[in-house]
Amino acid sequence: MFRALEQALRAVVAALVVTICVMVAAQVVFRYAVKEPIVWSEEFTTLCYQWLSYLGAALAVRYRAHYGVDFVVRFFGARWKVWLEWLEHAVVWSLGAFMLVYGWRIVEASSLQMYPTLPFSVGTGYLALPIAGALFILMDCPVLWGRWSKA
Fold this sequence. Notes:
Layout: H1 2-32, H2 41-63, H3 70-76, H4 81-110, H5 123-126, H6 128-150
Helix pairs in contact: 1-2, 2-6, 4-6
């Protein structure tokens, strides 16, 4: 299950990168060559960046690709490493839960506000927060399981 979820997340992140590149290139061509800019492209690209940032961060949780504070482990030594790893999971799960709960509140609060040039609400952009929060927790599960089975 986690592998399929990870592959789907990779595909969505890759599709967002391609979409952003295509939209920015199209906007440049339409603005300077055709002399008629795509009115909605800037907002749409910003929306894609929002989703890319949060979904990419969720994918990075799976591989622990975020910044770390490894000097803490070196400072406390190897005997504290296990406890610090558990603290790491607690931080990831807390952040994921926070994003899930409060992100949903932001989605609800902004659901009636519409983008000026796009046919959907501003809440669509903020929907990345609760989804990424849930994905933070889900992407941490294989790491947690791997550490739990070694302990």
